Amino acid sequence: MDLDVFVSAHRAEWDRLDTLLRRQRRLTGTEADELVALYQRAATHLSLLQSSAPDPQLTGQLSQLVARARSAVTGTRRASWRDVTRFLLHGFPAAVYRSRHWWVPTALLSTVVAALMGWWIGTHPEVQAAIAAPSELRQLTRPGGEYETYYSSHPAAAFAAQVWTNNAQAAGMCLVLGVFLGLPVLWILFENMLNLAVGIGLMSSAGRLDTFLGLVLPHGLLELTAVFVAGGTGLRLGWTLIDPGPRSRRTALAEEGRAAVGMAIGLALVLFVSGAIEGFVTPSGLPTWARIGIGVVAEVAFLTYVHVLGGRAARAGDTGDVEAAERSAAVPTAA
Fold it and tell me: Rounded to whole angstroms, how far apart are CA atoms 262 and 229?
């Protein structure tokens, strides 16, 4: 493509579109039709420039023009309760369901890694000695020690808020940092599994693994599932950079990235529930079976929600991305 010839041929149309967009008065019917037609042509021109003759300055100027025109054509729309309902019943569960081939293996592999590291720590005194001094280990694992008092060391509401913030941050980092080929996501998952493994190993070596699991399982089932979903989705986002499939790399990354942002919001709600369980149920005086039962019910409810609502929405074509009317215009330029 000869860029100078292309610009000369279409500059008048772009200027006319800009003039219509700057009109302060209400457009006539004929002008409105003209604006729509010019917007569609400008969107096509932008797509051609991006694929055939990328020029950063020209592409940027035309992108702004197309964005302004699109806003004028489609109008601005405020978020409503309909959007919230759609997100909770369709978008979020569909996105989680579509990512199941990534986060389910991530969950299984991470659990196995945590169990193996926990066994290694619990059966090797020299490893335990490298973690902390014997007196400190006894302080951690004894009845009424730090592992037990951790969950009741702060007021329940404040503790739940702190836990929720920390976990939501970890999940958000997994989703956002997945764009770096997923490598930071692997490190975040490893750190989480290492922390879990240290608790398993130290408490099992003290003969108090049942106590530890009774404290972790009520909130940990849902909490770790949310982290695994975030981790698996982050890895999927990283893989999209390597293999975007039939879509262009830019389109694939934009679509998966928007879905990941939506998942970050949804997982924050899931982690709010797990944080509430950790703050109010885990340190409560309920018997162990009751506390674990609450955690199991929360976990089963989430998995059912994803499988039933998410599966139905995904089969209907929902990907967790924003609605088609809110996406950037994309015009195919080659078969």
Answer: 13
